[in-house]
Amino acid sequence: MKLKEPISNLLEQIQYVLEGLSNEQYAQPVKILSGSTTGQHTRHILEFFIELNQGYVSGIVNYDKRLRNRMIETDKDFAVQTLREIEASLDKPDRELLLHAEYADHDAEPIPVFTNYLRELVYNLEHMVHHMALIRIGINAVADLEIPEGFGVAASTLKFRKACAQ
């Protein structure tokens, strides 16, 4: 599957930077990120993939109902283990899914949206890049760590920059 490689590359980038942090740095609140932590943004990314994997089995994906496992956001080694499990689970055939979206303030029924596994992988990839940009800010605030140049930058932006440099 063509999406596995770019998603795996991004997960490997996240693993690389997490391995350069202590657990304290990983779980340290960052003022410029409204007090959120690198661990919280990492958990957020990983739980979207976890929810997609569960939805693949049931046929219904609901990102709003994800577990929010505090262990992922406070224990970077557990987060890396979870990241590796997600990477190993990516190679599934496409199938139709139903996305349940919840945007109402009250107890309204979720909005059903027809989708498929590959479309949701694309969404998760783009969502991951967005949060990687925030993770970059968080890491720069708590650690002196060399972060890969393209970390948290969309593939289209990297291609555009490369074309402009030539």
Count of extended strands: 3
Q: pLDDT below 50 for ≥5 consecutive residues: which ranges? A: none
Shape: globular
Alpha carbon gyration radius:
17 Å
Task: Order the strands across the largest sheet as they lie in space.
Answer: 1-2-3
From the N-terminal CA to the C-terminal CA, the straight-line distance is 31 Å
Question: Could you characterize the architecture of this molecule?
Answer:
This protein has 166 residues and is mainly α. The chain has seven helices and three strands. It has a three-stranded mixed β-sheet with strand order 1-2-3. Helix 1 packs parallel to helix 6, helix 3 runs parallel beside helix 5 and helix 3 packs antiparallel against helix 6.
Which keywords apply here?
3 strands; 166 residues; 7 helices; three-stranded mixed sheet; 8% strand
Please describe the topology of this protein.
Blueprint lengths: L3 H16 L3 H4 L11 H21 L1 E2 L8 H5 L1 H13 L7 E6 L9 E6 H26 L12 H11 L1
Parallel strand pairs: 1-2
Antiparallel strand pairs: 2-3
Compact description:
The protein is mainly alpha-helical.
